[in-house]
Amino acid sequence: MKRRNFINLFLGGSLTATTVAFLYPIIRYLLPTRQTEAVIKKITAAKVGELAPNTHKIFKFGTSPAILINTPNGELKAFSAICTHLTCTVIFESDTETLLCPCHNGRFDLGGNVVSGPPPSPLESYNVEIAGDDIVVSKKG
Amino acid sequence: MSFQKKVNMKHLIQNVYSYADSRFKLSELLQFATKKKVPEHKYSFWYYFGGICLFLFAVQVFTGILLLLYYTPSIDSAHESIKFIMSQVKFGWLIRSVHSWSANILIGAIFIHMFSTFLLKAYRPPRELTWVSGFFLLLIFLAFGFSGYLLPWNELSFFATRVGTDIASTIPLIGKHIKTFILGGSEVSGATISRFFWLHVAILPLFTTIILGIHILLVQIIGMSKPISLAERKVKEIPFFPNFILKDSLGWMLILALIGVLCVFFPWEVGQKADSFAPTPLGIKPEWYFTFMFTTLKIIPSHILLFEGEVIAIFGFMIGALLWMLVPFLDRNAAKERRSPFFSFMGWIIFLYIVIMTVLTYLLPGW
C-alpha cells in the first residue's frame, strides 16, 4: 500500500469512527427511555349498583382508558375506550345505544363491532364479572 | 429643535454611519439593494405574500421569546401557566393572542404564497431550489403549528396530538418507532410536552433559520420570476429599495392592524385542561390548516380493497406532497418557458379540494 493511500485510509477511518462516537450517544439520548410498567390484567371498574341501566363509566385500565356500560337490559359490558381508527377516546350514546368516536364519527354497537365510519376493526372487549360488591374487568385470554 | 441642534444631530448620524460603513461595508449593501430591480405587473400583488410571511415569522419569534418568560412545559403546570399568562400577567393575553393569531395568519399566508407561486409557475428554472426550500418551510411551519398546539395542554390539543401522532404510526415497519420517538413513550404524556416544547423553541427555529436563509438568499441572487404570459413583453421594473420595501412594509402594517383587531375582539382561548382519561369532546377538530386531511380521514371507507382506508388516505397525502415538491422537475413545459395548462389545472383542483374540505369541516361538523 502506498503511503498516501495509507494516510487517506487512516484519516478517513478516524473521521468515521469519531463521527460514530459522537452520533451514537446523541441518538441514544434522543430515544425515549423505556420505563417498566406493571402489566394490569384485572381491575375493579365500579361498585355493584353504581351504574343505572343505559349509562356508562370511563375508568383507568393500566395506562389506557376503558369503558364500562350497563346496557338497557342490565347487562354489563366493558371495552377498551381507544378507538381502533386513530386512538381517540370513545363515548357511549344512550339514545342510540352505540359507542361513538367523536374524532372521525366512527360508531360501534354494544358488542364493540363497527357499525359505521372509518374504524378498521372492533373495539377490544373485556370480561366483566361480579366479585362481592365489585365489578371486576379483566383482559380476555 | 433649533437649527444648530439639527445640524449636530445630522453630523452625529453621518459619523455613526461612516464608522459602521467602514467596518460593515454598508454602502455596498445599499448599492446592491437600490440596483436590484423587481418586476411590476398585474400579478405583482401576489409577490408581497413572501414578505408578509417573513414579517409574521418575526412576530412569532418576538412574541414567542416573551411567552417563554412565564410558560412552564410540564404536565402539571403547562395549562396553569397559560391561564396565568392570560389572566394575571399584564398584557399577557395580548402577547399570547398575537402569537396564536399571527401563527394562524402565517400558515394562511404561506398557503397563498405557495399557490400563487405555483399558478404563476415561478418554480421554473433556475428557481427550482427556491420552490423546494419553500416546500420544506411549509412542512416546518406545519410542524410549528402542530407542536405549539399541544403546549397549552388543553383537551382539544391533547386529542389532536393523539390523532396526529397515530397517523405517523401507520407508516409500515418504522411507524410505531416514529410515534414512540415523537411522544417520548407510548402515550401522550409529560414527556410529549417536553419533546414538543424542545421542537417548538429549539429544533424547528434552528431549521427555519437555515432553510429560510437559503430561501431568501436564492430570491436575492436569482431575483423574482416574471410570469410566462409576460415573458415576451417589456415589463416595468421598480427598485427593490426603497420602492418595493416600502410597499412591502405597507402590507406588514395592514396585517399588524388586522392582528391587533382580532386579538382585542377575539383573544385566544385557553380551553379545558387535558385529561387523558376523559372521553373525546364532541365536535372535536384540529387547527383549520389540518382540517382538509381530517375530513378526508372522516369520510374515507374503513377498507378499500384489501387495505385500510386511513392507510390509503395517509399514503395518498404523502405521495401528493412528494409530487408537489418535485413539480419544478416534472413540469417540462414551464421549464421551456411554455404554458403548462395541465399543471395549472391540477393546482386549481388541489386548491379547491383543500378549500372545499376545510369549509365542509365547519359547515357540516357531524358529517
In words, what does this structure look like?
The complex is a heterodimer of chains A (141) and B (367). By secondary structure, chain A is of the alpha+beta class. Chain A is 20% helix and 35% strand. Chain A is built from one helix and ten strands, in the order H-E-E-E-E-E-E-E-E-E-E. In chain A, the strands form two sheets. In chain A, strands 1-10-9-4-3-2 form a six-stranded antiparallel β-sheet, with no helix packed on it. In chain A, strands 5-6-7-8 form a four-stranded antiparallel β-sheet, with no helix packed on it. Chain B has 367 residues and is mainly α. Chain B has 15 helices and four strands. Chain B has helices at 3-24, 26-35, 48-67, 78-87, 92-119, 128-150, 155-168, 175-183, 190-222, 240-265, 291-299, 309-325, 327-330, 332-335, 341-363; strands at residues 37-40, 236-239, 303-304, 307-308. In chain B, the strands form two sheets. In chain B, strands 1-2 form a two-stranded antiparallel ribbon. The model of chain B has no long low-confidence stretch (mean pLDDT 91). Classes of the chains: A alpha+beta (141), B mainly alpha (367). Chains A and B meet through strand 2 of A and helix 7, helix 8 and helix 11 of B.
